[in-house]
Input
Amino acid sequence: MKKRVIQILIALLLFMISLLIPFEKVWINNILYILSYMIVGLKIVWKALRNISRGKVFDENFLMTIATIGAFAIGEFPEAVAVMLFYQVGELFQDYAVDKSRKSIVSLMDIRPDFANVKRENEILKVSPDEVKIGETILVKPGEKIPLDGKIIEGNSMLDMSSLTGESLPKEVNPGDEVLSGCMNQNGLLTIKVAKEFGESTISKILDLVENASSKKSKSENFISKFAKFYTPIVVLIAVLLAIVPPFFLGWATFITWLYRALTFLVVSCPCALVISIPLGFFGGIGGASKIGILVKGSNYLEALANTEIVVFDKTGTLTEGTFEVQTIKAVGISKNELLKLVAHAESYSNHPISLSLRKAYNQEINPNFISKTEELSGLGILAKVEGKDILIGNEKLMEKKQISYTRSNEIGTILYVAIEGKYAGYIVIADKIKPDAKQTIQNLKINDIKQTIMLTGDRKIIGESVAKELGIDKVYTELLPSGKAEKLEEIKKKKSEKGKIAFVGDGINDAPVLALSDIGIAMGGLGSDSAIEAADIVIMTDEPSKIVNSIKIAKKTIRIVKQNIFFAIFIKIAVLCLSAFGLSTMWEAVFADVGVSVIAILNSLRALNVENKKSI
Amino acid sequence: MKNTFKIKGLDCANCATQLENAIQKIEGIKNTSISFMTERLVFECNEEKNEKIINQVKKVIKREEPYVKIEKI
Output
């Protein structure tokens, strides 16, 4: 880059001298111009010649070469040099902008840990993370990145996971917790037992995904390649016609005048602005998304996401937490706390999610001495003796079988009826909790032009429908087996419009076939789950469904920027092309128009990198 | 076997696509991808022929874009 700047400066100096000092002998001026041209332009001319020899005739280099050599031929020396000089200045600026955006994106991804402090034979060695093997012990000091996935053996600390999830709130970790590579250790010294080799660890997978993201190209990008293929030959043909037809066939003005116009036309026609700004825009969008914990595997998915019409959700783990929680406690003739205490004790023998949720709601030590007897009544519930009282916990059938008069509840979820000493004492409802941002997400999807939201679930009809109703989801299909979900998706696919796309959002655990079937597979909670990262097209690192709205917004913004660039560049080009064809613009203005459009388009593309990260969008 | 190279000196995304297509034509090569933005060349090939194919890739690059350099990562 430095070499090029010096070249341009020397050429500019020679050019200015020649332009400002009219030597007595004109050939001195001309030699200065030619020298200046050779310094900046020789490489371009050589590239053009080399490409022609290989049958690749029409490219930028070719356009610039014939325009400038033509200008020399008709004696417009200053113009010829100026065009080449400004073209090079434009290229330099373009490279600078690309380089800068590359750097800013790379710094976003600057989460690659450089070293690991590994403990070997009572010595602590600083080694490269890929030299550490599974089972070895590593130390992570405050302010260092965790280099490999593993389990904490010793130490407590707060972890900054923002580079992985975009989540700014640090997470507390204690011995026994599993930690992921790429997190920043904030304040405590951690001793970690390595669970995965570097190549398999979270950070490597994420980096690999992001770095190779732009390999899948979008239609707009392919459009530009095709466009360039036809564009340049057409432009050259028009230029030739422009130089020949009016002077020779129509008898308008001289050949030189029209040749000058044709050459100006060629200068303007350079397609660089389009060719560079489109991939840059997509890359910015992907980079911006990864900043807030959304990994997009290719610009084609970003494009598809912007055209999403239907969003299909899996229920458990996607819209709901996937964990059970006590929702209601209805106590009859006893206090709520007392009821919960008795039930929690009675169920304490089991590790079933329901028992765990009861214990969690009780949130006090279970005293095993209180429990003198527990007996499981298969398909009905349990019978237990707590604090000397006979307690029955179970479903409606149990109440009926034991002939206990109870009040039937219509609440949604698993309902545990309780009887103490043969007398009805109330019920407890346990249900999967809806994620806090789920409802807002569905509303925001509607605002962002999503026509339909659909939920697929393997859960019971009554539960599925009530969740859908609460969230405001348009359609729900319940009691589906995994294969049934795929069939339903096929069905939904047939009903959508031709251009619209279907996005499926799942947790990536058992919905891989559905993820693959949909136009865009989005996996949630991808952090630490290899299968999700592999199966999906877009991975949301956190558990928040609201990130889907963020993704769609980013996709739309990116596409908008890309379209702006396409239309803006083509419009200005056509306008200046027309002006130059009728002799209303000089070659000087043409080269400024060309470089100017590129610069503006590049700057516009860089906007795609800025992403708002609001929780409740 | 997957090969990843850093690829430097490409002029534009269009050149990257053209080079990608040229490399893809080499026999025994699969899933070639050149990202202009990340300056990365990725391709897959049979492990036994790896050495030979890498040389062919270098040859194609030299023919198509003599200013472009690649570097194994």
